[in-house]
Amino acid sequence: MTPLRRRHFSAALAGGLVLPALGWPAAVLAKDTALPAPASLPAAAQAAAAQGEPLVLLVTLTGCPYCELVRRNYLLPARRESGLHAWQLNVADRTTPLAGFDGKTASAAAQVKSWKADFTPTVLFLGRQGQELAERLVGVAVPDFYGAYLDERLATARQVLAAHKRA
User: Fold this and answer.
1) What are the backbone dihedrals phi and psi of residue 152, each rounded to the nearest 5 degrees, phi first?
2) In this structure, are strands 55-60 and 86-90 parallel, antiparallel, or unpaired?
3) pLDDT tens digits for the chain (167 residues)?
4) b or e along 45-56 (b: 16 or more beta carbons within 10 Å of the residue's beta carbon)?
5) Residue 114, Cβ neighbours under 10 Å: how many?
6) Residue 11: in which H helix or E strand, if any?
7) What is the domain partition of the chain in residue ranges?
8) Which of 26, 41, 104, 144 is spaced 20 to 30 Å from 94 by Cα?
9) Topology classification of domain 3-166
């Protein structure tokens, strides 16, 4: 296991110990408030880039309490309040067609597997051609700091987009 993967695993494991300790009722954790799923990754990325924003993709799994935490507390509010281009792909969805950056149609599960992003939750920050603009946000290590980690990645992704635009 590479040091980066080991760090992501450790962070996610730590998050697994912290969230249940918050004392949230199981019904609240289990409720699945979905973001929309894109039909076309290139179209979603183009729309985001046209506004100077990265395409933000949450790799999720139905029933994942950590995915719900990220969706409910960070991505859905940012989508509503600031127009963040946040979408989700379900790691287990093997049936819904998804147009990929390579021009081929596959399932969300196949796309996630090709990115090696099958740990949930994982948040990806993608550019117009599907390139990663900022480091992935894998797991939920410490819920109190998650917003800061997300903001940092978004700022990096926006800076990279702006630099590409100027070049």
Assistant:
1) -65, -45
2) parallel
3) 444 444 444 444 445 544 454 554 444 444 457 899 999 999 999 999 999 999 999 999 999 999 999 999 999 999 999 999 999 999 999 999 999 999 999 999 999 999 999 899 999 999 999 999 999 999 997 778 999 999 999 999 999 998 877 76
4) beebbeeebbbb
5) 12
6) helix 3-21
7) 3-166
8) 26
9) Glutaredoxin (3.40.30)
